């Protein structure tokens, strides 16, 4: 995704995405082994479809903190906030051990909404509706149109927009390579990269279908 992120001016992700990827390629062996064994998600119960990545789990913790009994009303009191944060895991562990002691697992007998027959039918119907729409637009036809066309607005891309869209990955990859070379690789002679990681990033303002509706200001009118 990094080439597209860079190409379409998501500046924060453009700056820190390469750093994150570099860190993931240099994980300590014990952590890497656990990741390769599939231990990179959080599972709160024995229900199906409830494995989420740690970041989403942390968002859930943050959401829980903003409900009754959480951090509402104490966010400006450092000691109270720290007490709640530092004790949350321990309190959760005690609650889990209590459930286990009484052989009670809340929610284990419930069925997740995603697993019900009605939800599965709705998902299948949605997929068929999309397939029918794509077939109607000739997306899977063996003969391609002369230029790109927006499925929703029926707009036809200009040659400039078409080249911008079709070459987005290659153009973005060039920017990623330049970013890494300038800001993350230390030269043989020197103790820091040529450009700091926090240096400004320039926007591409890459052409898309939305560019068809750009309003060109008349300098004479000003």
Helix content: 40-55%
Structural class: mainly alpha
Query: Tally of extended strands?
Result: 2
How is the largest sheet built, in terms of strand order? 1-2
Tally of DSSP helical segments: 8
What amount of the residues lies in strands? under 5%
User: What is the H-and-E element order?
Assistant: HHHEEHHHHH
Mean pLDDT: 85
* Distance linking N and C termini: 41 Å
- The gyration radius over C-alpha positions equals 26 Å
The backbone outline, from C-alpha atoms, is: extended
Largest beta-sheet details: 2 strands, antiparallel
Poorly predicted regions are none
Brief descriptors of the model:
two-stranded antiparallel ribbon, 222 residues, 49% helix, extended, mainly alpha
List the helices and strands and how they pair.
Layout: H1 2-7, H2 11-24, H3 29-36, E1 42-43, E2 51-52, H4 54-65, H5 78-101, H6 117-136, H7 159-166, H8 168-183
Antiparallel strand pairs: 1-2
Brief rundown of the structure:
It is built from eight helices and two strands. With 222 residues, the chain is an all-alpha fold. The radius of gyration is 26 Å and the shape is extended.
